[in-house]
Amino acid sequence: MVKDNSIFEITNGGKIKLADSVIETLQQHKQINKDSLESGGVLLGRFIKVSKNIVVDKITTPMKGDKQTRFSFKRLSPLHQEIITEEWKKSNCTCNYLGEWHTHPEDFPTPSGVDIRDWKRKLKKDVFSGRYLYFIIAGIKSIEIWEGDRRTLEIVKLKITN
Ligand SMILES: [Zn+2]
């Protein structure tokens, strides 16, 4: 198993860190077999106020009602949103919706045209606390993160850091 990076630089000068359990869940859903389907879900985590850093603590995984094919994932189950609301309340409003993840059946993932369109739509329409949303694609050999700015709708790939 390739060791996946868990810390990336974000544009505000801080870092985004994926918790170990998040990396493990992403690894479990990688499309390593020739017939494995795309998976996806939402990112949940915290803004670390003193440091500009963000931690992704939790992700949801495919649930009944979601649509999974070899080359697409559609998050259709209302349970993802229910979990977002539940975690928000349970955490005294510190656990936020931070973005989305999905897998790709390619070694080093790049977003498709459909992905970019979906991400921009989320930046325009979704209710979220910060200025940015984060989009993870888990490929077979690497996990990559993109940051979307809701003011400019610009999407940038984040650099790996330590
Ligand atoms: Zn995609």
What does this structure look like?
The chain has a single domain (19-157), classed as Cytidine Deaminase, domain 2 (3-Layer(aba) Sandwich), CATH 3.40.140.10. The model has no long low-confidence stretch (mean pLDDT 95). With 162 residues, it is an alpha+beta fold. The protein contains three helices and ten strands. It has an eight-stranded mixed sheet. Strands 5-6 form a two-stranded antiparallel ribbon. Residues 102, 104, 111-112, 115, 137 line the site of zinc ion (ZN).
The end-to-end span amounts to 20 Å
CATH class membership: Alpha Beta
Q: Which ligands occur here?
A: zinc ion
Structural class: alpha+beta
- Helix percent reads 10-25%
Helix-strand sequence:
EEHEEEEHEHEEE
What is the fold named in CATH at topology level? Answer: Cytidine Deaminase, domain 2
Poorly predicted regions are: none
Q: β content, as a range?
A: 25-35%
Count of individual domains: 1
Helix count equals 3
What Rg, in angstroms, do the CA atoms define?
Answer: 15 Å
| Strand element count | 10
Please give the largest β-sheet: 8 strands, mixed
The whole-number mean of residue pLDDT values reads 95
